[in-house]
Structures are given as structure tokens and as C-alpha cells.
Design brief:
Six copies of one chain form a homohexamer. The first copy, chain A, is about 30% helix and about 30% strand. Chain A has about 160 residues and is α+β, with helices and mostly antiparallel strands. Chain A has one domain (about 25-155): 2-Layer Sandwich (Alpha-Beta Plaits). Chain A has a five-stranded antiparallel β-sheet, with helices on one face. Chain A is elongated. Chain A starts with a helix and ends with a strand. In chain A, about 60% of the residues are buried. At the A-B interface, helix 3, helix 5 and strand 4 of A face helix 3, helix 5 and strand 4 of B. Strand 4 (about 140-150) of chain E pairs antiparallel with strand 4 of chain F.
């Protein structure tokens, strides 16, 4: 951790890292999150019969749009020229769960984890919003990094 | 669920609910989420010794700002004149977890759950961002509605 | 036009109208626009076989989101607490045209034409974006106000 | 169209194209749109005597600002480092029409048509807003691509 | 100061004030700032001969747009339904200074000082931007509240 | 000034400079501004005893976030991939003044003065907002460029 500690602002204030000296490389990050529904809500969503309509398409678009605005939401994130964002959904029948996987890519000087996370979590919030008229105790859970490649710290993959 | 079904767009398309006929009442919502850290990261955060500095203050401000922009992020949400937003943190030593509680209030025609959720999840993402240089396998989990009051559906409280 | 002329800034500079003295009434506006495609593009869109996928759903969500941000885009528009926005599509087989109708509602001190127009035109731009890989000479045309009600100037309707 | 079809998401969902492998070249796009006014409105605009003031200057600035935010408005657009945006107006006396031409330039991996279109249409919406106190049946029409150069598909020009 | 002290968060963290209990009254605020130019720059601006063109019109529109987005920029500000924003310029020949006066109005539960200040300072920054190609040592100075009325604390006026 | 004059739009309209032909170099800019408080307000801020809490941390985050959105606020600014933004505060006891220094860096085709200025002035506005419950006659003053390097015009430094 010596490298990181050398970065510490002496008084503990929040700070943006200067990435100007970092190499510009291809960066990929994939994040996952899960929306746990009741059986009834899951069935309505699967049948596209929710009062507010098509939850997953709405969530996909919301997630992609949010990824592009990560730098506005997360104070110490850098603006990045994203070359690709995707949000994918896997409805898991047995557990009435929507598994959301979001991917971001760029050629840049810093990683795109936060863009992938923002896409995943805003997609999850949108699923919640589309379902909340029929269920209040929805759970958004298990949000974690699945994959990251392209930076100095090498490839991270837990899939 | 008859009430909701009467809202369904015949072809399942996403749609915004017209709230123009709803009563303008005092609305409160509280959402919770959790950031599970490693012991080492938790200790660095607690000692305000993270490379990027003060994680919780940065996360609080990010969460409050994000709540005010919920309508830009969640497609079918209405713009609301929020009268109050707060984001509170409880570091839980035993489990190396930061419990985040976000609250939103308005006098309006629709609930503020999404604003509370957005504040909580963007605060959690900011904690992740402030800690990610020292730990990659951070988990954001257990995001759920704790309290909601003020609408036609009455008070919901699981605390 | 005496009423309007009394508002004129003596030097012709752009100005925002003060709506503080206007009555708060229910306001509705509906705007229309048209995207004229080639036969081939129209058929791909109708078959949901465009390279970038589902054009109309994406356009609907983009239009609704844009309506909520009209005050950020149009300099002299007031921020309004929209109670409802909708974007509807009618594909017209004979002319290979997508007719877009956007509606906005609020209870406020000024009309919602610009919100309806912004929804319609951003939806049209999104249809263009979703189709542009297969056709470059798409036309967006015939954008006009269909209906406006709720203000001092009475109801306007050309449908 | 084989190239495009190979991009198709198997289930027709909306998707962002990955531009990470595309060459970074100089890109230019020019779009046109038209605002058709009544004789009376046209004369007021030409005399800079509209109630809300200088319509064209306001529209120019609104169009330039909007071009820079295209990636926030059009879901599948990529954020681009625009090097130039311009919006030009040609008032056509005979037809009481304002012809708007918008141009965008970048050195990037994808075209700038959507930025040019967004500038043109937001400028047109702003002209509408500045004139709507004196005329309700304004038409925004004839929006099309005039020129595009710099990408793999070669130069397109209809001027 | 007893009233304010009762609001203090026990640990000194930043917080948003809950304005939900405040009376909804007509609120006005006027702020002033000054851009001090060199004689040469002032003359170019006055002759509308700056390389980037009409500085004051651009600054006026930028200031009005920024006022509407104050709640996005200033973390603890509330979103407000502004009914009026204006930015006025007085070029002072003797001192080569542009005096900027910005006014904001709303009917709301909290004051509009920050909206007036944001309009004034973003207008000043825009004047700087329009002039910076010809002068680097421009000064933005003397930014202060001129007038405030409508809240519990009564009218404040230093004009 | 011949170079600039050659840029002038013949009719004095505002215009964005085309930076597409400029060299991509490392750019740094530092701007300064000052918030002059009363003795009482300064002491409350220094003791972190203001009603709205920690003014400087809130201002630092607001300034950094605002720098990243400069291109949305200042009409003729280009979007830039900022590699670093910082906002630093020096409380000056004798004059009850907070000196704010903001720095921006990028590798790009145009300077980052406006980003540094926007960070400094939004930080100052945030300090004002955090203090305004206890003092109304706060002054924001002395905003100027301290340093600029990396462009064709060479290094400028007044420190």
C-alpha cells in the first residue's frame, strides 16, 4: 500500500487523483448487481404486465445513460470518452431475481469500474421504480466488481 | 391489484404515471444500503487515511446532490421540489460495514422513495470509489426501503 | 399585440418572462413531429431488426427524459413540476413515416408547449440515431403544436 | 447491409455500438432544419421586436450548448470531445422561413451527425419559444443531413 | 444566533436545512458582481469586436441558464420553481468595468440568493471567456448581495 | 492582435473557436478567488460550528464537480478530458478571508482556465451558501488567473 499512501493528502481531505501521467490503454470493467423480487412481481415483470410497463428495456436505457454521466455523480471520477456501455439482464426464475451485469469500455488513463457500477445500480433503481407500485419490499443486493482489465494493476476477474 | 392494472398501457410499453390528480401531501421516504469492506479498508476509512481522503463526507455530498437529480436518472420519475435530503452513515466495527441511511422529504403529489434510494446508492458508489485503490472486492448490498409515509397507500415502516 | 409589446426590453435583448403573477392552472400541450424513412428502413424498424435495436422504445424513453430537462435546454423556459409526459408513435405503412405525438401536463404558471416539443423532437432524433447506420437521408419534418390548454389565451387545438 | 446485420442483438434490444476499434479521424457533420413563421412573426423577428427579444442569438447559444450535451439526450450516442460547433441562420424573406444550419466537428472514433442535428433542432425549438407569444402555428420542418465526412463510409453531401 | 445554532449537526457535518415547515412567500434576490477589463479589452467589447463575438448577450443567456441549475451546483441548495431570472449589464466607461446585476424570483419556502449569485458569477465567467483571447489579467470582483426580500428575516437592501 | 481579429465573425455574433488544428499538449491553469467574511462568521467557519456544517469540504467537492461541467455552463467552452482538478483553501486569520485556489489539468487542444475559474467560483458560492444564515454581507472578490501553461501563448504566471 506504499504507493497509495504516498498519495495521501496530509490532512485527509478528499482529492482527485491526477491521471495525467498514466498510460492510455484499453480498459474494460464489468459490475453485477441483483434485484430480488417477490414471486408475484417477478411474474408480472416476466409477462411484461407491470403497471408502468417494460421494466428491463427502461432499465437498460437508464443504465447506459447514467454510465455516461458517472463523472457528474461521483465527485472524484474523471470524465472519460466511453467507447461502449452495455447493461444485460438475466431473470432467474427460481429465486425471482433479476441479475444485472453492466459493462463499460474506454481507451483512457483510468479504469471504468465506476461507470460499470453506475450503470448497474441505476438500472437496478429503475427496475425498482417500475415495480414499486406492486411491491414495496424489493431488495437490491450483491453489487460487486466481476471483471476489470487494462490498468497498471492487471486483470481482476471473479467470474 | 385492480387499481394498478387499470393503469396498464395495452401494449406493455413503459409509461409515466399522471400524478396531476393526486393530493399534495407531506411525503417522507428512508432507504438503506450497506457497503461491506475488508477489515483493512474499514480501518483506513475509520482513520480517514484512505488515499483519496474523506470517504464519508464526499459520499454524503454526492448522495444529496444525486437525490436532487433523480428525475434525470430514473426515466419515469417526476421532478419534485425536495424540501430536505439527508444521508447518514453508521460504521459497524464488527462487520467492517458502512450502513447508509438516506432520507428525502417533499410536499408533493408523488412519493420520494426513488430520491431516497438514489441518494443511498450514489453515496455507496462514492464510498466504493474512495476505497477502490485499496480493495477491489467491496460489496454494496442490502438496499431496501425502511420507511415511507404521506401517500394514499399509507405508512410503510420496517425499522 | 399591445400586451406583448409592453413586455419588450427596450434594447431587444433576450429575456425571461416573469410568470410569478400568473394563475396556477392545469396545463396540457401536445406536439407532433414526423420521421420519414425509406421503405427498407421502415421495414427494418417495424420488424425490430435495426442494427441498434428497438428504436421506438429507446425514443420514447429519450423523449420523456428530455421533456423533464427542457428548462436546461431552452434558455428562457421556466422549470416546471411536470405531472405527466408521454410520447406515442404511429407507424404509417403507406408513407414509411413514424408519426410522433408528445404530451406534457403540469399544474403551473406557464404553458408546457416547449416540454411537449422537446419530447417530440428528441424522440425523433433518437429514431434517427437508431436508424442512421442503414439510411442517411432520413427527414424529420412537420413539427407543430396540436393542442394547448390551460392558460390565459384559452384552448388551441388543430386536431 | 451485412455489416450492420452482424451487429444485431439477437433479441432486438437497443444497444450501443462499440466504437473502440474504429479509427480516430477528423469528422464533420452539417445538419439543416427550417422554422416556418407567419409574415407578421417573421417581420417582428427580423426587426428584433419580439416580446422575448433576440431570437437568433438565443437560439445560436442554445444550439451550441445542446450539441455538447447530445450524449446525455440520445441514449446510444457516445460522449465526444467536440472541437467545434456552429449554428448559422439564413432568414428567407419570401417564405418567412428561418433556415438553420448546424455544424459539428471532432477528431474521434464515431461521427458527429447527432451533435449537428441536436444543435439544429434545439436552436429551432428556441426560435419557437422566443416567437410563441405571437404565433402558435409555427412549423419546424425539413430537418436533414447536409454533409458528413471523416468516417469509414466516406463523404456524404447533398448540398 | 440561537435559532441557527439549534440547527447544528452535532458533529459539524454538512447538512441541508429542512424547509418543509417554512411559509411559501414571494422571494426576490439581487446580486452584483464586476468584471474589470483593460481599456483595450473594454473598447473591443463595447464595439462588439471581440474575437469570440458578442460577450454580453452570451453572458446573459449563460447566467440565466445557470441560475436554473443552481441546485445541481451548490450541494445544500433546494430545487426551486424560479418564476423569473434576469441578468443586466452596466458598462462603466471610466473604470473599464462591466457591472453585472442578476435577479431571481420565486414563490417558495426558501430564498433565491444563491440563484442570483450563480447567475451573476456564471455571467462574469462567460464575459471572461469571451475576452480571454485578448487579455489574461481580467479581474472578477466585488460580488455581493444587493437585495433580498420575502423570507422570515425580512428585507435586506444595500443599494 | 491580428491573429484574433482574423477570427472575428463579420457580424459580431458569438462563436466557438475551432480547436481541431491546435496541438494536444499538457495544459495547467490555476485561478484564485477570495471570500471575505465577518470576524464572527470566520470564527464559526474555523471552528466548524456553522449551522450548515463543514463549509470548506462541501465547497471543495462542489468546486471539483463544477469544473467537470464547465462546458455545460460556459457557452463557448469545449468539453475537455480533465486529468486533475483540485480546490485548496487558505483561511487568513487577520483579514477573516478564505483564499481559494483552484487548479485544472488536461492533455488537450485548448486551455483549462475556465475550468479552474469555474471550480474556484463555485467553491466560493458554496462557502457563501454555507455561511449565509449567519451573515448577509459576505464579499466574493479578487478572482483572477494565477498561472497558465501549455498552450501556444506560453506560460503566464503572476504568483
Amino acid at each position: 500500500m506504499t504507493a497509495q499512501l504516498s498519495h495521501i493528502d496530509e490532512d485527509g481531505n478528499a482529492r482527485m487523483v491526477d491521471v495525467g501521467h498514466k498510460a492510455q490503454t484499453q480498459r474494460v470493467a464489468i459490475a453485477e448487481t441483483r434485484v430480488v423480487l417477490s414471486r408475484e412481481t417477478f411474474d408480472l415483470l416476466a409477462a411484461n404486465a407491470l403497471p408502468k410497463g417494460d421494466a428491463l428495456t427502461t432499465a437498460k436505457i437508464a443504465g447506459i445513460l447514467a454510465a455516461k454521466r458517472t463523472f457528474e455523480l461521483i465527485p472524484m471520477c474523471h470524465p472519460l470518452p466511453l467507447s461502449y456501455v452495455d447493461v444485460r439482464f438475466t431473470p432467474v426464475e427460481e429465486t425471482a431475481t433479476i441479475v444485472i451485469e453492466a459493462e463499460a469500455r474506454t481507451a483512457g488513463q483510468t479504469g471504468v469500474e465506476m461507470e460499470a457500477f453506475t450503470a448497474a445500480q441505476v438500472a437496478a433503481l429503475t427496475v425498482y421504480d417500475m415495480c414499486k407500485a406492486v411491491q414495496k419490499d424489493i431488495l437490491i443486493t450483491g453489487c460487486r466488481l466481476l471483471h476489470k482489465s487494462g490498468g497498471k494493476s492487471g486483470t481482476y476477474d471473479v467470474r
